[in-house]
Amino acid sequence: MNGETLFDKFPEAVFRSLWEQMLLGTLPSELVSEVLAPLLSDYERVRLVLPSEVRCDFESILRVYPEIAAAHGIEPLPALPEVLGSLWTRIRRRKSGGPEVSPGVAADLAAQSQTPLPVAEDPLSAEGLIRPEGGRPVLIRIAYEPERQRLCFEAPSSSGRISLHLGGRFVLTLRPGVPGCLSVDRFLEAARDPETGGVELELFEEEAERM
Amino acid sequence: MLDWGADAGRFVNDLIEVWTQTRFKPLARTARKHREALTVMVGEVFRRKGGNDRKKADEARSEVLKYVLERMKLELEFEHFVLFKEAETIRVVLEDAFGMAQGAEEDRVLIPRRQEAVRMIVRCLFAGPLKSADTKDVVVFLRFFSPAGDKTSVDQDRTQRIKSMVWLAYLLMDLVRVDRERACASGTGYLRSALTNLLDRAIEGKIINEETAVPSYNYEGGKWDDTLYGWLQGEDRRPLAEKLRRQFNLDNRLDHANRMLLAGHRECLYRQVLFLFC
Questions:
Q1: Nearest C-alpha of chain B: how many angstroms from A16?
Q2: Looking at chain A from residue 40 to 79, which residues have their Cβ under 8 Å from any Cβ of chain B?
Q3: Is the confidence at residue A115, as pLDDT, over 60?
Q4: Residue A188's pLDDT is what?
Q5: pLDDT higher than threshold 80 for residue B118
């Protein structure tokens, strides 16, 4: 490795070490607070000038360290899978005509009851950033269409094809600018992992189609 | 203030969701299977009397990770990081982690003394009131952490400055490690002259005597051999040593002001290394 590369790589590795520790939650809260002080001291202004994917990364860190967010009066938006979990519960209640809670999801629902959906006027839709494995975060919009009994997903700013997995299984491919929809029954059946009771949403970038 | 009683479930869920989107996904999978037990455990930590929010949250994160790792039979150490002992010299780390061909998994290296280094940098890059910090500096600093984003669009001059601060922090920590008594007794004036002297000696090949293998013939009886300064000596490393000297701007040049360190940055790093290690 030549001098120029080393000059770059070593500092990057130092910061990456810290980043990994913050994601894991092994860095002490006090140090994370000091490291993020330039962001936290003026959060609303700084977050607006951060690129969306970097902002998404720091919102993740504030989810790992909620006490830091709380100390600065910051409320990170709930993660998209959590919002989806809330949607699942509400759609299921609506469908069955009343509350229905299976034992495996009791703790989950307790958490969700604290979590307002981000789009208040349209409570059965949501949007949020989620990172495909190894890729950049993607904005996903979710809309429940009760008259057609389906749930539609859209990645409005994505340029490639994305596989969407629910409950650990592939359910549909999202193409740029084209919504992909699931029947409500399929969503209710697929989204919750039967083993863990949690709603799992994962994205995977698909390789570009060969000409 | 968090509502600890109600937030245990959210605390665990958020850890799981964040890990799901990273290469710690295996942790998320295991945590999901034990979500209820983890929520109960975190709730117990939160309800304990005494201790502040930060300490309780640190303890809760540590307990969650410990619980999950135990069920994964400690795979994390072997699969996710190249681990170095905290006592390892940075010279050894650089040789092991970066001595090989480019493309080594340097992003999985846990570098020793990283916490002290970042403390020094954050205190010296943002030395004034944070509210009046230059937003460009803040953005570049934050982008350094985040693996996301197109790095080519980042302000290259300010990036170079932060990288220079990392190198200077490690060179100073090595200097104080080897010469602690003299550094702590003499203060920043000594650090200033010793840094310049050692960098110049590294560039001129005068740390390790290449004519003989006897360490006592080396500079100050060989005491700098195992430091970054000794590592910087030699034909291969000279371009890096020269670049570092330029970047540290020891001659206080005024051109490329955003790219290089200013006297204020250097003096602040001298003070911080003494504050942290003396």
A1: 6
A2: 41-42, 45-46, 49-51, 53-54, 56-58, 60, 63-68, 70-71, 79
A3: no
A4: 87
A5: yes
Determine if the pTM surpasses 0.90: no
Per-residue pLDDT reduced to its tens digit, A141-187: 888 888 899 999 998 878 888 899 888 889 999 988 889 999 988 88
Percent of chain A with pLDDT over 90: 20
CA distances from B144 to A14, A31, A58, B122, B138 (A): 10, 17, 12, 12, 10
- Measure the CA–CA gap between A35 and B213, rounded to whole angstroms: 44
A63 vs A77: CA distance, rounded Å:
9
Cβ–Cβ below 8 Å for B122 and A34: yes
Please give the Cα distance from B224 to A155 (Å, whole number): 56
ipTM score for this prediction: 0.86
Supply the pLDDT for residue B86: 52
CB contact under 8 A, B126 and A79: no
**What confidence category does residue A128 fall into, taking pLDDT thresholds of 50, 70 and 90?**
confident
Angle, CA of B71, B42 and A39, to the nearest 5°: 105
**What is chain B's alpha carbon radius of gyration, rounded to the nearest angstrom?**
22
pLDDT at B2: 60
Long-range contacts: B79-88, Cβ < 8 Å, 24+?
A: B79/B26, B80/A20, B80/B23, B80/B24, B80/B108, B81/A20, B81/B108, B81/B109, B81/B110, B82/B108, B82/B109, B82/B110, B83/B110, B84/B109, B84/B110, B84/B111, B84/B112, B85/B112, B86/B112, B86/B113, B87/B112, B88/B112
Please enumerate, as own/partner, the contacts of A119-128 that have beta carbons within 8 Å and a separation of 24 or more: A123/A90, A124/A87, A124/A90, A124/A91, A126/A80, A126/A83, A126/A84, A126/A87, A127/A80, A128/A77, A128/A78, A128/A79, A128/A80, A128/A83
Those of residues 30-49 in B touching chain A at CB distance below 8 A are 32-33, 35-36, 39
Give me the residue from B20, B32, B143 closest to A54, CB to CB.
B143
Q: What is the mean pLDDT of residues B217-221?
A: 86
